[in-house]
């Protein structure tokens, strides 16, 4: 059985079977990776254990927006690793306040809460919304409701599973009944208005573009309508920008496309340039003030190393004009790939460098990803027929065109 599984995966990285075999024997079977075994990364490239070079068109699910092992971020991490790595929040340290200031000023909020993973940022946002619901909005005790969208993805904790309508996420992990979450269709303002008119709703959490759902882009004006309705019904608008944020969609935040300000934003992934888990919740003053000592925290949240790495990661985004590059390269990508529509591809969609293609034949995405890997480009299906393309934002035009050539060649070979 194991041998069969390994044999099935043996074709991409030469000699990679021994690494895969150890994972199969000793690791939890909670992922189904493509059968490449990577051992090195630099900029937009990764290399496998056999030395084969690939364009990385997943970039750690957008964690490596600044490119792999960016020298400035690595240097920040290295020098801080030799200086002070952890204090816990039992003591102050010299980098937390200035990092919170950079986060607030960069993204336009009053207060920042630093955590570690994206899902923790989501959990924190839900906690803040509920407490705000009781203490500011006046929702009766234990009645607070939070509204989510169908096909959302924000991680796999109990709360995240409890807000999901994907059986892969929630099956046999229940019960979730006490969470008082409501799931409504994405990209649908009428249903949203109905949901938010319930006076016990504290927050509406959504992705400005749904990532794991397959890069689902709502109609232009959706975020503006969400803002209007959240204001009308006194509900906190929570934008999950864990994947869309920090330049990925060609704006610093994806909601900047509509020039609106949510009440809460969650960030993670490329807040560290792919070096370590760092996340943040950003909010207005009168919302974040519901957190008081003892109500929330994390041993590693806001540690000195995370602070230095986050500062360096944000600097790289600004100094190298990666937001602008994402927008420019994204246009070129969609323009060239759209010439394939009508053949095996039925759609290309996205913003900036967050794009996906839809393949006509029902289950072709996996096979195309294998073909792409064989031809030197790594991407991952998000569904049977959808492939997401999210290269590091540092990609230049020559590299992008070379990558598109690989994609076109691979589609033809399929
Ligand atoms: C939109 C969104 N939110 C939250 C998360 C969870 O982030 P993490 O895996 O760092 O917990 C993800 C992960 O892919 C995501 O795409």
UniProtKB/TrEMBL annotation:
NCBIfam families: Orn_aminotrans
Cofactor(s) needed for function: pyridoxal 5'-phosphate
Reactions mediated catalytically: L-ornithine + 2-oxoglutarate = L-glutamate 5-semialdehyde + L-glutamate; a 2-oxocarboxylate + L-ornithine = L-glutamate 5-semialdehyde + an L-alpha-amino acid
PANTHER family for the chain: AMINOTRANSFERASE CLASS III (PTHR11986), ORNITHINE AMINOTRANSFERASE, MITOCHONDRIAL (PTHR11986:SF18)
Gene Ontology biological-process entries: L-arginine catabolic process to L-glutamate; L-arginine catabolic process to proline via ornithine; L-proline biosynthetic process
Enzyme Commission numbers on file: 2.6.1.13
GO molecular function list: identical protein binding; ornithine aminotransferase activity; pyridoxal phosphate binding
Metabolic or biological pathway: Amino-acid biosynthesis; L-proline biosynthesis; L-glutamate 5-semialdehyde from L-ornithine: step 1/1
Annotated Gene Ontology cellular component terms: cytoplasm
Pfam annotation, one family: Aminotran_3
Protein source organism: Stentor coeruleus
Keyword tags: Aminotransferase, Pyridoxal phosphate, Transferase
Domain of life: Eukaryota
Name assigned to this protein: Ornithine aminotransferase
Family: Belongs to the class-III pyridoxal-phosphate-dependent aminotransferase family.
């Amino acid at each position: 059985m194991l041998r069969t599984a390994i044999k099935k995966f043996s074709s991409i990285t030469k000699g990679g079977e021994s690494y895969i075999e150890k994972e199969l024997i000793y690791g939890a079977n909670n992922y189904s990776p493509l059968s490449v075994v990577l051992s090195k990364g630099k900029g937009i490239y990764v290399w496998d254990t056999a030395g084969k070079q690939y364009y990385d068109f997943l970039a750690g699910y957008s964690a490596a927006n600044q490119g792999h092992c960016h020298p400035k971020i690595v240097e920040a991490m290295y020098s801080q690793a030799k200086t002070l790595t952890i204090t816990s929040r039992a003591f102050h340290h010299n980098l937390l306040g200035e990092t919170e200031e950079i986060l607030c000023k960069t993204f336009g909020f009053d207060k920042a809460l630093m955590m570690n993973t994206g899902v923790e940022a989501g959990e924190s946002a839900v906690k803040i919304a509920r407490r705000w619901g009781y203490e500011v909005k006046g929702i009766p005790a234990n009645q607070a409701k939070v509204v989510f969208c169908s096909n959302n993805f924000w991680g796999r904790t109990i709360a995240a599973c409890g807000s999901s309508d994907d059986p892969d996420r929630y099956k046999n992990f229940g019960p979730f009944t006490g969470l008082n979450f409501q799931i409504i269709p994405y990209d649908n303002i009428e249903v949203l208005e109905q949901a938010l008119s319930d006076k016990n709703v504290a927050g509406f959490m959504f992705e400005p573009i749904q990532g794991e759902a397959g890069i689902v882009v709502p109609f232009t004006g959706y975020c503006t309508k969400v803002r209007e309705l959240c204001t009308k019904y006194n509900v906190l608008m929570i934008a999950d920008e864990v994947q869309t944020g920090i330049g990925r969609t060609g704006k610093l935040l994806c909601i900047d496309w509509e020039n609106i300000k949510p009440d809460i934003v969650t960030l993670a992934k490329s807040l560290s340039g792919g070096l370590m888990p760092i996340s943040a919740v950003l909010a207005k003053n009168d919302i974040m003030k519901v957190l008081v000592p003892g109500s929330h925290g994390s041993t590693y949240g806001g540690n000195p190393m995370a602070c230095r790495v986050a500062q360096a990661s944000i600097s790289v985004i600004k100094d190298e004009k990666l937001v602008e590059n994402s927008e420019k390269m994204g246009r070129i990508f969609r323009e060239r790939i759209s010439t394939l529509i009508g053949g095996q591809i039925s759609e290309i969609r996205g913003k900036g460098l967050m794009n996906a293609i839809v393949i006509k034949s029902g289950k072709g995405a996996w096979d195309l990803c294998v073909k792409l890997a064989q031809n030197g480009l790594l991407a991952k299906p998000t569904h049977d027929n959808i492939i997401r393309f999210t290269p590091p934002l540092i990609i230049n035009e020559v590299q992008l065109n070379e990558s598109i050539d690989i994609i076109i060649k691979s589609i033809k070979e399929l």
